[in-house]
Write a structure and sequence with these properties.
The protein is an alpha+beta fold. The chain has helices spanning about 1-20, 145, 160-175, and strands spanning about 25-30, 30-35, 40-45, 50-55, 55-60, 75-80, 85-100, 105-120, 120-130, 140, 150-155.
Length: about 180
């Protein structure tokens, strides 16, 4: 019995020595404040979604074709608004068209590349465009934004903001005594 345990421990330790070290990942809450260009969004972290999805309306494709797949590569302009009603217009190229299944069936959505910032961390990913104005969150961050860089703590929200606030609070006594 002791020999079996020893053999198991020996094999386990040699296996772990051969594994590559995993780089540290950011811990992110279920809801976070992020920024796309000049606008801040309260975003839902959605580990069930392959692709990030952004509220978009007034979508205008230059030289639009009736076949949505023929519009890939064309310039697209759209408006977007966050949960506070603040809005901006973004102009970019269509990189592809996704067919997305939902409770109503299937729909085609334009996909664009956008840079999304969480604090000082910025990542450019594919984002599908959909009118989310009637939904609670204007922005869903999907697995394509989370991949390789984040672990989600679903029991928390806005971890970056709490981290920054606690840092500022730790500085206050020093500032006030000067």
């Amino acid at each position: 019995m002791k020999n079996q345990r020893f053999l198991f421990l020996l094999l386990a330790s040699s296996f772990t020595l051969g594994c590559t070290q995993i780089s540290p990942k950011h811990v992110i809450g279920a809801v976070e404040m992020v920024q796309i260009q000049d606008l801040h969004y309260r975003a839902r972290i959605d580990t069930g979604a392959d692709t990030t999805s952004l509220n978009a309306y007034n979508i205008d494709v230059q030289g639009e074709e009736s076949n949505v797949n023929a519009n890939v590569g064309k310039t697209l302009r759209f408006s977007t608004a966050n949960e506070n009603g603040e809005s901006q217009t973004i102009e970019t190229k269509i990189v592809k068209v996704n067919s997305v299944r939902n409770v109503l069936g299937s729909e085609s959505r334009y996909v664009v590349q956008l840079a999304i910032a969480w604090g000082s961390y910025v990542k450019t990913v594919e984002v599908n465009l959909r009118d989310r104005s009637k939904m609670q969150f204007a922005l869903l961050l999907g697995r394509n934004w989370l991949k390789d860089d984040f672990v989600v703590d679903v029991s928390s929200e806005q971890l970056r903001m709490k981290e920054q606030n606690s840092y500022i609070e730790s500085l206050l006594p020093r500032i006030l005594t000067q």
